[in-house]
Amino acid sequence: MARIGVFICHCGENIGRTVDCAAVSAAAAKMPGVVVGVDYKYMCSDPGQQMIRKAIIEQKLTGVVVGACSPRMHERTFRAAAAEAGLNPYLLEMANLREHCSWVHSNQAEATQKAIDLVRVMVAKVRRNRALRPIRVPVEPTALVVGGGIAGIQAALDIAAGGKKVVLVESGPSIGGHMARLSETFPTLDCSQCILTPRMVEAASHPNITLMTYSEVASVEGFVGNFTVTIRRKARYVDPAKCTGCGDCFNKCPIKKIPNEFDAGLGQRRAIYVPFPQAVPNKPVIDAAHCTMLQKGKCGLCAKVCPRGAIDYQDQDRLEKVKVGAVVLATGFQLWDHAAYGEYGGGRLRDVIDGFAFERLASASGPTGGLIKRPSDGKEPQTVVFLQCCGSRDDKVGKKYCSKICCMYTAKHAMLYRHKVYEGRAVVFYMDVRAAGKGYEEFVRRAIEADGAEYVRGRVSRITRRRDGKLVVRGADTLAGRPVTIEADLVVLADAVVPRPGSEKLAQLFGVGYDQDGFYSEAHPKLRPVETAAAGVFLAGACQAPKDIPETVSQASAAAAKVLGLFAKPELEREPVIARVNRTTCAHCRACISACPYGAAKDFDIVDRAGKVLRAVADVNEGLCQGCGTCASVCRSHSVDLDGFTDEQIHAELNAL
Amino acid sequence: MKALREAAEKLLREKRVSLVIGYEGRKGRPAFFAAKPEDCGRLAYDASCRQNLAAYLGKPEIRARLPVALVAPPAVLRSIVVMSAESQVAPGQVLALAVDGDSYLGTFDAAGAAELLRAKYSTLAPEPALLERVQGLLQKSPAERAAFWEAEFSKCTRCYACRAACPGCYCSRCIVEKNAPQWISTAALGHGNYTWNVMRAFHQSGRCTLCGACEAACPQGLPLMLLNAALDREALEEFGSRPGYDPEAKPLIGSWSADDDHSYMR
Amino acid sequence: MMKTETSTAPAPAAFEPRITAFVCNWCTYAGADLAGTSRLQYASNMRIIKLPCTGRIDPLFVLKAFENGADAVLVSGCHPGDCHYTSGNYHARRRWTLFRKLLALTGIGDDRLFFSWVSAAEGQKFADLVNDVTAKVRKAGPFRAAHPGRRAS
Amino acid sequence: MKTLGYFPGCSLEGGGIELDLSVRAIAKAAGVELREIEDWNCCGASAAHSLNHFLAVALPYRVLALAESQGLSEVLAPCAACFSRLKGTYQGGVRIININEFMASLLEAGLAQKLTRRLGLKVAAYYGCLLSRGQDIVTGDDAEDPKGMEAAIRAAGCEALPWNSANECCGGGFSMSKTGSVLDLSQAVLDEARAAGADAIVTGCPMCHSNLDMRQLELVKRRRVPGALPILYLSELLGLAAGLEPAALGLDRHFIESRGLVRGGV
Lengths: 657, 266, 153, 266
Known about the structure:
The structure holds four protein chains of four kinds. By secondary structure, chain A is of the alpha/beta class.
């Protein structure tokens, strides 16, 4: 005989304001099988939970319904409370009276009626709930980190420091990511290379870290604790085992004029190359698209000069499987292409560059050796215009969101420029200066007050190139309320931060969600910012949202902590929401076997004592089943059912409506 | 028919099958089970044979006597192929004595039947008249359609002859007999009748070979083929589904493609 | 025909549709949560049944909802490619393509049965969807009006 | 023979008559019939919207109502201002097309083959405001980087120069009231065109044309510009390329001599 307790939460005013909680608990008390119906200000508070625990024990409750916030918020909390009182946690369900009711309806009568319905549905369901035991699955204590930028490096180092193995996968020839391209970093102006390269070396040499550069995730199988990830090791045409990184090959390579991606196209590289001198690993790869040997079979010079015979033109992509228990996605960002702005030259003006190009110009290791020279004629620009929010906060042409880092790096750019060109004029056009961060506002003030950057609040409406090579920048000074025209030699656009191309595809491989802009979705915007909806997959850095270095590093360490937490136990408990097959009624049509996304549904032979096969049926592997229930709904005879969402439960819910 | 009888007789004499299921010459062409070579003289086949003998392959009594042979016009051949795709017919356990009109086409296993179908019957489609009736019904307003089926389904006595006649209905425990929970009311009333008939048709989607046995078997003359044909066309147009031509085919419901249509989803 | 029925129905203004929604836990349910946290106001006629995935939704659930007096049914889950279970929604999509055809043939049309993809990020879309569906069903009138699939009252 | 509704508007009967002549001529050459909307009225451009909102809406809507009632599904408004006013907030069934779209459509419809004369000019394509701006009015082109004329210019055997003033304002309606500003703005446009090395500026707007053509006389007289720069309508350019007589296109009506542009002059 069911003895259900119903507990209605006011959530302070949040539910109480629009839902008559007393009326709901009174109505609930009259529902079939309900023996307790009470309401309380804060059910999630300790006295609230105590109230539930007490009732479970004293009233010998067989089931509990908590009418409160979304189960995504507090289901764990309340189920834990129930467990403490000796009730199987899966005999507790939540009715969503806040997100789905009080917050979205203003009419009290309607909201209250809906609340009563939602509770009745859950009471009907909970009467049919069965005690479930969490499923234990072994955990492979190795982590996969995707992306070798500062986020990935930090996460890998922290996990490795925790004594667990890490596979660090980077699509480029070297780790280091965008940070390796920066000249100095705000707000301290310490040199990016100086603080990053030691970390890169440490990551490469750490005994717990396996580095896979020039590699990509090809496919993913399995689930939290037991992923099998296939990595595509792209053909390098250079055997890293033999190569000593002496550099003879790329010094001799005759194909010289390839724009170097690392230098934002300002510098040039060979067809066989290391992207930058401090690359890790410091071993070249051949860019097949440009190599005449690989294209036409002519040249072969690098092979001739290589003292170790490390060059292998026959090299092929290889697929390599790794078994990992957790994954950290740290695929980072790229800059939005400002070619979409016709008014800024549509990408055709060579002296209108993006932030990375300026970083390379300012970098001592850059193509100009740290001298600010403009691309078109190599002259030192006497006037530089910096334009913030280029493609950010513009839902017409660009992106709705604020890219967050541009205010700071633009201030930095203005500063660096003024340090290098004393007489030069640095003009910054901005909408707002968003310098929230430790030492950030002070940094911007310094750029303005100490280094004399001219800040103009307003947008630039047009950039045109005059015949004498001057860039005529026309805009508005919205503080002075007048149009301004500046004759500049160089314009730096702070282009919006967008996810890397292909990040959606990667997200789909891992079953991770992403927003309309392609940034990965965290499991909860506040309380679970590094987890994703996919168990065992965590986020670090700008793949989740625009972030600066300090923020990226903190999130990377947070993700590492989550991974280490997951690895702390040899087994992990999984929600026991899994499918079961009724073997007596299964007709073995195999629809479920075909439908299962996880290969959890399998053929099963029913044998007699002699081992003679009597009948074949379908069966579900507990370890592989993730509980989507697709098998149950393709089963015509309903011989497959799903724990937690059984036919009986759903049927009862529908009858309660 | 001589050839058919001889082929059947041969199969029994050579003990390649323990039973030949066919139609008897008598009026009404009832099913006839020839267990002995000499029985085969009573076999007959012509256009009036409406029963889909593949339906027997789902029955335990018959399964107990595998291997068996069936007299099989094209639609029944397709049923055999569907059943083998759904692991209901083990390779070599069922032989088809393929017939079409008054000619006997040979003896085939499921794979052979599929080949024959692809070669000679790749364009089987519901009769135009039937499709016209479907179209005509779709022309009507939702309320008129509802009224039409209200009238039809109200005749249903829930005898389940349609199910018994259908080779696709081989479940040992039909959903309508599940009582915890009972999704489909068994009372021969409005909503129970509606749900039953709609679900019966839906459970055949991507599997129905349009043999017409269900409608032929219905003592109340419900136009069940309207439902079957409508689904058959939709499955063909949307997913290129042509059940009964490939013994390896994946189930239409239970597989998917990234470019399936979802224009109706918002 | 539906029209005439709604207009002859007693005081159609008084008609408050009952709408049953079957939604997946990962996208649409979360989208509805987001609508809540964003305090978006929408019609209160819909009652949500939460399932792990649209892949779990058997057509029988829909028929049962109608049988029990729902005036309309909404099925909503993750966008293609976003399924938490990688392909549950693809399976669902194929099923519904066929099932809605069958229902249309038997007089349950686009004004009774609604499908949508609502992601966890689309709170606004969810609110708009509920309002839109509710408005359409108001127009269509009570389902009980005349359909063999209803429970004889 | 394709038929198209035609709305000349006031300027094409006055200052912009060359546009009217050349559009009709090129349409004829391309075998397209222009059916003038009967009883059309002024679209209200330049003045109405700043004086009386009702009038500003009523005038163009009457024209479109007439077009609808006269069964014209597509209406060409060669004058950029008329086009802008007509299309404005209109949501009816009539498709309103501007001169750029019209020329593009003619070229697709086969005019390209008829352009036998390669003019070999360096041309600055000038869109001004009304052929570039209004996101939902000038659709299918980028307001900040318009390209709508370039295909036609290349088809005429000319080079469309990259230049800085393609969508700058010429001073527009202030020609009379603030002539000074118009001179400044038009001069800026002319200077840019010359700096880019243009032999001529091509436009589709009578207002722009009069400001750049008629007002240029003043600039020449005051020596504010080094010399005269011919201003052509896009339709004139294509007309010349099609081998039509300059006079038939109205070139003899320009203030700035432009007949010399055609190799061999006249």
